[in-house]
Design goal:
Number of strands: 6
CATH class of the largest domain: Mainly Beta
Structural class: alpha/beta
Order of helices and strands: HHHEEEEEHEH
Largest sheet: 6 strands, mixed, barrel
CATH topology of the largest domain: Barwin-like endoglucanases
Number of domains: 2
Number of helices: 5
Low-confidence stretches: 17-51, 155-160
Length: 168
């Protein structure tokens, strides 16, 4: 479990304290339901369905790298063009977002760690690694989907980035 925590901490740049709660859920040695049940009353709590709509955004994405390598981002961390991160104007820092290239349908999960892009015609600036994985140079049309379930997003980001094949 310690090795998984270390990998997740480096991949997602999350503090080890946060991972100590999530890792047992991922590896099956604990469960969030158990923790909640032990602190609640003896009566079962009715399941609450999320009535909000799934957040998404469609627009153009660009990428940044080279001259920003090692500079501080809006989140305070150093920019690493070889990690799967992105800059967005309004999403909370630390948000996980699935980005899909609408031309080739490749998809990857990135973490928002900076503010931008500067040009108003774009919705997202990706790190060089994320842009290369999505198969574009310059700009491309993308769909952004906010990952609500952090556990699912963490499992997805632990594996090599997932390519979603184009439906034919």
């Amino acid at each position: 479990m310690k090795k998984l925590s270390t990998v997740l901490s480096k991949t997602l740049n999350l503090p080890m304290v946060a991972l100590s709660v999530l890792v047992p859920c991922l590896v099956g040695t604990g469960s969030a339901q158990t923790a909640v049940a032990s602190t609640s009353d003896s009566k079962p709590t009715p399941e609450v369905k999320d009535t909000k709509r799934h957040w998404y955004q469609i627009g153009r994405a660009s990428w940044y790298g080279g001259k920003f390598q090692g500079r501080s981002t809006a989140s305070g961390e150093k920019f690493d063009m070889n990690s799967f991160t992105a800059a967005h104007r309004t999403l909370p820092l630390g948000s996980l977002v699935r980005v899909t290239n609408l031309r080739n349908k490749k998809s990857v999960v990135v973490r928002i760690n900076d503010r931008g892009p500067v040009p108003a015609s774009r919705v997202l600036d990706l790190s060089r690694a994320a842009a290369q994985f999505l198969g574009f140079n310059g700009t491309t049309a993308v769909r952004l989907e906010l990952m609500k379930d952090v556990t699912t997003a963490m499992v997805t980001s632990m594996q090599p980035p997932i390519v979603v094949a184009a439906a034919r």
